[in-house]
Every structure is written in C-alpha cells, then in structure tokens.
Design brief:
Helix content is 32%, strand content 13%. It is built from three helices and three strands, in the order βαβαβα. It has a three-stranded parallel beta sheet with strand order 1-2-3, covered by helices on one side. It starts with a strand and ends in a 30-residue tail after the last helix.
C-alpha cells in the first residue's frame, strides 16, 4: 500500500493554513491516494491554529481514505491529548482499547 505525505508548515500552523491544506488533501485523494500521512515534524511551536488545521484535515479526509499524523513532537502530542484529538496520532487514548478491539465481558461479571 502506497502512502502519500502531506507536510504541515512549521513552526506553528495557523487557522488560515487549513483551507489550502484541505484543498491539497482533496487533490491527493482525487489523484488516487488511499492513505495520507500528515507529516508534523516542522511543527515545533503548536497552538490552537495547529489544532484547527489538523481537525479540519481529519474532517476533509473522512470517508475518502486513511489519514494519520506522523512526526508529532511532545508539545503537539500533549496539545492533541488535551483537546481530545490524540487519535489523529494513531494511538489509543488512556483507558481506551485500540481501534477494532472489543472488551470481553464474562457472564459472571458484576455490573459497576
């Protein structure tokens, strides 16, 4: 499976970057991309603009193909975790099973 990359601008993407990046993402899918990795290595001073850009990219990718953020540094990881978008990094949230994993329930388990 071929993975296509989309690079986020650094050091701190702004909300105004979302529209052109979403347009680029759309063109990548139209050109046949099945999975797009959003390279966030250049994002060294993330703020709410970076969160908006990533959230809008995720929405633009919905139903078109795979989408994941790669290369996120500690600051971006912490910010995405804080706003509840850590799943963009392909990691499960704390106390959550990974996607596609179902918790088992035994017949004699007590209800909590």
């Amino acid at each position: 499976m071929e993975i296509t990359r989309l690079v986020l601008p650094g050091p701190s993407p702004a909300a105004r970057d979302a529209e052109p990046l979403c347009a680029r993402l759309g063109r990548l899918y139209e050109d046949g991309a099945r999975t797009v990795e959003c390279d966030a290595r250049a994002v060294t001073a993330p703020g709410l603009g970076a969160v908006e850009v990533l959230a809008r990219l995720r929405l633009a990718a919905r139903g078109r193909g795979g989408f994941a953020v790669t290369g996120a540094g500690p600051a971006l990881r912490a910010l995405l975790d804080l706003v509840g978008l850590v799943e963009l990094l392909g990691e499960a949230e704390e106390r959550e099973p990974p996607l596609g994993v179902q918790e088992g329930v035994e017949p004699d388990d007590l209800a909590v």
